[in-house]
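Quick one before lunch.
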Amino acid sequence: MILFANLNFKLINMTVRIFCLNEKDIADTEYLTHMLSKDIGPLKFRLYTPSTKEDYYKFHNSLDKVSVDDFNHISQLIENRYHFNHNFFNVILTEKQIESPTNKFKSSKDWYSFYFENFIIVKTSGWEEATEGKPYLGVAHQIIENLFQSLGRIDLYGLNLFDSVHKKTKTCINDFCETTEETNGKIRSGHICKECYDNAICHVENDTLVQIRNILRRIRNRITEDYEIPFSDRERKIEIINNSDIIIGGVYIDWGKSKNLHPYYLFFLLNYNKNIGVSDFKGEGEYQDAHEKMTQLLIDMKFKNFEKLKGTSVGERLLEEKLKLVESFIKNITSYQTRIYNSIMNNVHREDIGYFYRLTSSKINKKNTYCVKVEPSDIVIPKKFLKYIVSEV
Ligand SMILES: [Zn+2]
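Model of the zinc ion complex:
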């Protein structure tokens, strides 16, 4: 059986028409189509809401479950009704049970979807568990998975199916997934493994693969978002101790080889919830003493013998070095911002807390500014550090 003889080899634009055949699924399907449409690329998604007058709707409505023959018949009725060419994919969404499309191999698996040429069918019911209560993400994943496999010319009906689909789970889009847990893992992974990418790239253009991967990541992010373990007071506590070490949630931050990150971050931490940017360091912003305060902090932390050596040639040279560190920071804030973030994340016990205490950036009055956000009740600052706090003009 040659399934894909009529498919163009590489397609520029492709419209994916989504036919929702149950009234109760319309709201979810609208939401889903909106999500699929967020990523720019050759795939365009269009929703067709159910019209009870249409033949394909009436026929589907009369079924208890959808067999392969029923699927073919619905596809035919849709094809009769709508102009069809090979730049279209048609997705049929049904809440009804789907029968196995093939008897080529034995599996106790419930069928959630399959495809034939440019027609895909996806079951909209039974997704609660695998999607942690967000069923539309399961349906969206199935649409993308079937598109990916159909475009990549995986023959669902061939004996060598398991050359292209992972029977043993690899947390990849092409996992066969006998169990709900495996399906959940696949959706949470948002992953296309290298082997499956290499197989697909022979048939699918790069732009389409990039778009598919972006959509998978969006689905993955949505399934894991809104999931928060509350922080305890101890976990969210951020302390500066007398020797200037920083402790987040009971863990000392080890700055590794990049020792300068420590004073840079400390400066912003002492000045928490203040947006300080290059214009402030240049004396043109809201905090005109920012440069002076950061320099003072750097000298006190990195040049302990400053007072003793002041005026000597060694002293002058070392002072020059420290002043250069301030300039280097101002010139490369973004790169230091990333390095600070990595150092914090490598240390903290909980990454969500490390993320929260990162150096954030925001545009204020068209200028880039940087800030560490902290609840005042969560931070401990010894008195000796108060002199590094900038003052507003
Ligand atoms: Zn794979």
